[in-house]
Every structure is written in structure tokens, then in C-alpha cells.
Amino acid sequence: MANNDQPTSPHLQIYRLPLTAIMSISHRATGVFLSVGLLLTVIGLAVLAHGPTGWESVQNLMLHWFGQLVLFGFTLVLNYHLCNGIRHLFWDIGHGFTLEAASRANKLVLIGTVVLTVLVWFVALTV
């Protein structure tokens, strides 16, 4: 008979997911967010095809602080998915499976995401 006083393994209050697992889950989630962003892009193009009046409304929405936040989030998610996808390509060819290499790749993905996002927004705001 099992002792019901003992927690099941791994206990969720104690167990902490490794960064590689969190990044893997995040990669899937960013794919979903990119699909939503693509849907918003298609809606924007449909409004553009309808005429200049509707397009002005879309532009006003994107210039609003909430629109800017959505665009920033989309840029961040896109860059993360790109960088993490490149890491997965290296895994597909058999490189980077050691713990040290995976840890290094995690850090490179996060740094690359931040650098690319800042670079995209710097170019977008200065041009």
C-alpha cells in the first residue's frame, strides 16, 4: 500500500524547469503568437486594399502606444523565434547537445533576441 503523505515526483512546488525546457515551450508559444500577428497583418492588408480611409485608421492605431506595444511584442517574438529556430537547425545536424553547449546556446539566443529587437527598432525609429 502506498503512503499518501509523500509528494509525487517531481513535486511541482520544488521542481524547476531547466532553461532549455522553458525556451522550448517558449518557441512553441512564439509560433502561436506569430500566427496571430500574421492574421493581423492580413487584416491590415485587406483594409489597405479597401482604400486610404481605412488605412489611415490602421496607421493611427499603430501609432498609438498600444499599437506600438503590439508591434514591439511582435518584433521581439519574431526575433526570438528566429534565433531559437537557428539553434534548432544546429541541433538537427547534430551539434550542441552537450549541457555546456545547450547552456551557451540558450544565452546566445536570448542575447541575439535583444540585440536584433533593439537594432530593428533603432532602424525603424531613425529612418
Give a short synopsis of this structure.
The chain is elongated. It is built from four helices and no strands.
Topology:
Layout (H helix, E strand, L loop, with lengths): L18 H32 L1 H12 L1 H28 L6 H28 L1
Helix pairs in contact: 1-2, 1-3, 3-4
Oligomeric state of the chains? single chain
Query: Major sheet, described briefly?
Result: none
Shape: elongated
SS class: mainly alpha
Describe the 3D structure.
This protein has helices at residues 19-50, 52-63, 65-92, 99-126. It is mainly alpha-helical and 127 residues long. It has a domain at 65-126. It is elongated and about 70 Å long.
List keywords for this structure.
mainly alpha; 127 residues
